Amino acid sequence: TGDYAAVGFPDLRLGRWYNKLTFKILLRGYHSYDDVVNEFRQDVLGLGKYPKSTTPMQMADGSPIPVLHGYSPIVWPRPTDWPATAYVTGYWFLDQDEPWQPPAALEEFLAAGDPPVYVGFGSMAGRNPERITNIVVQALQQARVRGIIATGWGGLSADDLPDTILKIDQAPHDWLFPQVAAVVHHGGAGTTAAGLRAGKPSVICPFLVDQPLWGARVHALGAGPKPIPQKKLTAEKLAAAITEATSSPVMRARAEQVGQQIRDEDGIGTAVGLIEKEIAGETQQ
Fold first, then answer.
1. Lesser CB count within 10 Å: N end or C end of the chain?
2. How far is residue 168 CA from its own chain's centroid?
């Protein structure tokens, strides 16, 4: 697309020519594996070589492959120059079938005071998780808010915490996020979606790849402060962002508005319907 640069490339705002160039560079990387792919096609499948003129979004004969994008068009509008076979369905949330039973300590903490701020970076804490953890603890205290730190996957390691901060391994986002004041995270696509659906402001501290993009989109929507790259993260910056997320009536209202719009979507149902149409030969070609 010419509407924006490919994920992982800087947003230089040089126009459509630059944006399209970033995708051409990605396509060059894709075709660098042609020899391996063609060897498999010929030796194992008994097929001819994969034409160099094709893209990952095409069959070997050049016909388009229907592509389902599992994110909300509210968060990232569908590009104007995408083919008719590229669909934006809304998020695919996989909620639990059975109600989750939280540990007693978590239930008691949630009931003991104002809604806390959730902080979790998954497995993303860089080379120094202790540094990130110290920044988080200091920021929560400076912002004078209660906090829940999720340490799952080794992203954070927290001990000797004050009574205003609870450490947990993990908790389902669809259960926990509606009960917090704001969500601090790394900007992974799934966590970003969960925070938005819950209608809570997100403070995003991106590390790499697509995370800066989601942080920028949340900020552009008005559902979170300006993202803070992990390399520039300090307790003071994080505390200021948390304060903004928890005290700005405009941001809180906007986050709830976006959340309601996302909750009204049926991404899975839309995707299933498109798959059924494809099987029946009814999708656009």
1. C
2. 21
Could you tell me the maximum CA-CA distance found in the chain, to the nearest angstrom? 67
CA–CA distances in Å: residue 255 to residues 42, 82, 202, 232: 52, 28, 8, 25
pLDDT band of residue 285 (cuts 50, 70, 90) is: low
pLDDT tens for 3-34 read 988 888 888 889 999 999 998 898 888 788 88
Separation CA 148–CA 203 (nearest Å)? 14
DSSP string, 61-107: TSPBPPEEE-S-TTTSPPPTT--TTEEE--------SS-----HHHH
Q: What does 213-275 look like in DSSP terms, one character per residue?
A: HHHHHHHHHTSSPPP--GGG--HHHHHHHHHHHHH-HHHHHHHHHHHHHHHT--HHHHHHHHH
Does residue 161 contact residue 119 with C-beta atoms inside 8 Å? no
pLDDT on residue 30: 79
Amino acid (1-letter code) at residue 240: A
Give CATH for domain 104-263.
Answer: 3.40.50.2000
